[in-house]
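The passage that follows is intended for readers who have already worked through the single-chain material. We present the inputs for a multi-component assembly, then the predicted structure in tokenized form, and finally a short commentary. You are encouraged to pause after the input and sketch how you expect the pieces to fit together before reading on.
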Amino acid sequence: PAYVPNPDRYEAMPHRRVGRSGLKLPAVSLGMWHNFGDDTPIARQRAIMHKAFDLGITHFDLANGYGPPFGSAEKNVGRILQEDFSGLRQELIISTKAGYPFFAGPHGSGGGRGHLLASLDHSLSSLRLDHVDIFYSHRFDPEVPLEETAAALDAAVRAGKARYVGISSYSATRTREMAAILRGLGTPLVIHQPSYSLLNRWIEEGEPSLLDVLADEGVGCIAFSALAQGLLTNKYLNGIPEGSRATQGKTLREHMLSEENLEHVRALHKIAEARGQSLAQMAVSWVLRDPRVTSVLIGASRPEQLEDTVASVRGPGFTADELAAIDEHARD
Ligand code: NDP
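Having made your guess, compare it with the prediction:
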């Protein structure tokens, strides 16, 4: 049967303005780093995307290489977009990125013009789209002048292949430089995508911190791995369950599940319980407590996980005492 979206999808989900741009994002966005490769049944991928959209998650985040195998997530998502979401393109915010190794050869990765623009064309073809809404430089490339990377992003917008541009995981200093170069080109930097969670607070650190620079430059922020790949959920409180990301030997590495980390996770879980939230919900609410953060990018291997996590947008605010208790355990 054809997918019919929930007519109330905009009621439950707040949308926040991205920096000083005309773009708005749902407070919670869906990332497709895992669970959209050829190793996940397409029926489950569909179910996750339908659930997301029904919950008001209108933003899907991709990158050239997401899989496995490499690049298959964009192909699978492209198929589902065409088959199930036709007629809804103008409601969707689709992003992709280039910068990590993707093609063979010397222009297969990095921040050079050739790689960025070839990769974007490849992504558009996989996604079956004529444009993405946000195109990111996935990482700072020390071998390529920022001017060249910025000019390639600007060219993507001028060619109509991207509506907005962003950068991911750039330091505060590089972000400041990139914002200035892009402003000069007439294609403002609208968004930065850094990692940020209760267990990873680098964007708050330094003088100025990345968050300070973003606020100052009018750039939005979308935080990734806010659940620390599942560690900040109730999943690992009593061991490693079958089928979880940690058993797949991929990106959630064993040292992250150290006894020391788990002690902090259990303490945070207690604080969440006292607030009437699950740990996943508190982890997302906490990232969103800062108005400089526009959206939280979460992953999900099942539709039910999205229901749990998204309830965070209805969660209570934080008292000063709660924040202080959290700080005792929320550290890298
Ligand atoms: P999360 O920290 O959100 O972890 C997601 C995983 O946590 C899920 O796949 C699931 O794992 C588990 N989980 C989620 N919700 C629940 C729940 N309610 N209860 C129990 N377990 C839950 O994020 P990711 O690390 O996946 O990153 C999110 C997105 O951020 C990526 O998809 C990508 O778009 C982006 N990203 C960007 C990067 C960049 O360089 N710019 C780098 C990394 C991510 P399980 O399989 O165990 O069920």
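Commentary: The domain at 9-234+279-320 is CATH 3.20.20.100 (TIM Barrel). The chain is about 35% helix and 15% strand. How closely did your sketch match?
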